[in-house]
Amino acid sequence: MEEYDYRKENCHQGFNIRIAIASYVSTFIGYHFNILSLIGFVEGISMAQQRLQQFVQHLTSTDARSRLEAKSPDDVVITLAIRTPLTKAKKGGLKDTVLDDLLYSVFKSSIDKSKIDPSKVDDICVGNVLNGKAAYVARAAALAAGFPNTTALSVCNRWCSSGLLSVQTIANAIKAGSIEVGLAVGAESMSLDRDDGIKEFSETVMQNPESKDCTMPMGWTSENVSRDFGVSREKMDAFAARSFQRAEAAQKAGRFDEEIAPVHTTIIDPKTGEKTRVVVDRDDGIRPGTTAEGLGKIRSAFPQYGPNTTGGNASQVTDGAAAVLLMKRSTAEKLGQPILAKFVGATVAALAPRIMGIGPSLAIPKLMSIHNFTNADVDLFEINEAFASMAVYCEEKLGIDPEVLNVNGGAIALGHPLGCTGARQIATGISACKQRGKKVLVTSMCIGLGMGMASLIVVE
Ligand SMILES: *[C@@H]1O[C@H](CO)[C@@H](O)[C@H](O)[C@H]1NC(C)=O
Ligand SMILES: *[C@@H]1O[C@H](CO)[C@@H](O)[C@H](O)[C@H]1NC(C)=O
Ligand SMILES: *[C@@H]1O[C@H](CO)[C@@H](O)[C@H](O)[C@H]1NC(C)=O
Ligand SMILES: *[C@@H]1O[C@H](CO)[C@@H](O)[C@H](O)[C@H]1NC(C)=O
Ligand SMILES: CC(=O)N[C@H]1CO[C@H](CO)[C@@H](O)[C@@H]1O
Fold it and tell me: Alpha helices of 207-359 — where are they, by DSSP H?
């Protein structure tokens, strides 16, 4: 009976193991044993057990890192990750570049930079959201850029994650053995391919309130996130200012240079209609000297929905493309392709459309449970800043150290060309890791109509 009481008042973490030890001891030593020495014995075990637990925790974390960093010939690896500059829709250097030419440019840069024999590329997947004819355009652009008629191509669309969906699609095809080498691309001309949204669905579909929410603009979801989770305008502006300041510093230090593949294109003077050949080689959305105080003065972009989302604290409307070349490690070695990183995997999570912005707060933990890792194992996070409201929420909810989130700024400063972003984050994230001597990278984004996607990459 005494033993029972003892155990009860010492009920904490080690409870079960201690009961097990105590009953084991009492069974074998019986009632001849002095209860005090039993208590002392059990306390000793408990301390040892605590030390063991700490050791196991340490070991588990080290284990996760070494498991993530382990190399096998069957790993799916990234041998190239590049992007075009990201430029302001309607104003920037790519404003007159149709999707055909944006894709042509990024395809051609992929071949030139990787020096891969294009006939070795079995399949291309292009993430694109807004161009209704992307499947025509992309295949034609691939042929023009130098991919032979034997290189297949598909187009995918899961809104803001399309660029990552294309990477996942290619990686899975390689993993399954259905292709050997594939190019994953994301591209969007927000200048020329407009999103007019949708006003309504069929009568049957509109009866569902969540379906009805799918007609609402993204600014509405940002205000919902701000209100539901108490994300203040002040926090949003502070986050946005940080994005601008980091992007400005990164650009000045040349930290984007390696990932950017310049675009040779034509720009039209809006007044004279005169066409000029230009080389677009830098991001133009970054506003030098941006401060939270300055952002605080910008008027609400969606006053009809709520007060806190502005042109200064939401992602910019932007043109751009990015490409990621993937194959097995063994294939990369055979073809002499440089191994930049291992693509470990990706996952998607879905939620109510009215708060779509918090998608990463579900997708990232899901990714962590699939691949058995925690925040402590991650060196850098790239979470797409669709809106500061969702970015602030995700940073806080996931307990991410601000020092490791979007170290070179994000979509608020650089822009968010919808279909491009998922591939763009991989290019930026890999170069950020390389520059800082870091390895484990998580990329993630929220997705319109209520989803989130996340990927795990280990840089070598
Ligand atoms: C496919 O492309 C190759 C060159 O890459 C060309 O020689 C061949 O004629 C093309 N096939 C057909 C049926 O046109
Ligand atoms: C958010 O969504 C709901 C619909 O579920 C709406 O009624 C509400 O007013 C919205 N706006 C804000 C700012 O919360
Ligand atoms: C906007 O920010 C204020 C504080 O700046 C906060 O009280 C409010 O909940 C936020 N969201 C909405 C939708 O008003
Ligand atoms: C993660 O751990 C669980 C059990 O702890 C195990 O079943 C699973 O195979 C592990 N997954 C990976 C990717 O290591
Ligand atoms: C992504 C987004 O909704 N951005 C908006 C930011 O605010 C400006 C107006 O100031 C809107 O035009 C953008 O659409």
Answer: 209-213, 218-228, 233-252, 292-296, 329-335
List the catalytic residue out of 160, 214, 394, 420.
160
Q: Are residues 274 and 384 in the same domain?
A: yes
117 lines ligand 1 (CB under 6 A): no
Q: Is there a contact between 320 and 84 (Cβ–Cβ < 8 Å)?
A: yes
Domain total in the chain: 2
Distance 379 CA to ligand 4 centre (A): 21
Residues 196 and 50 in one domain: no
Of 19, 44, 69, which closes a domain? 69
Boundary of a domain, candidates 23, 44, 69: 69
| Residue-range definition of the domain harbouring residue 63 | 2-69
Average pLDDT rounded to a whole number, residues 308-331: 95
- Nearest protein CA to atom 13 of ligand 3, as residue: 227
**Pocket of ligand 2, candidates 212, 226, 354: which has the most ligand atoms within 8 Å of its Cβ, to mutate?**
354
- At 337-365, the pLDDT tens digits run 999 999 999 999 999 999 999 999 999 99
Per-residue pLDDT for 196 more than 90?
no
More confident residue, 58 or 278: 278
393/319 same-domain check: yes
Told to judge if 214 belongs to the known catalytic residues of this protein, a careful annotator would answer no
Residues 31 and 175 in one domain: no
Catalytic residue among 156, 214, 416, 420: 416
pTM for the full predicted model: 0.86
Give percent above pLDDT 90 in the chain: 85
Q: Which residues contact 441 (CB under 8 A, 6 or more apart)?
A: 341, 378, 379, 380, 381, 382, 429, 430, 432, 433, 456, 457, 458, 459
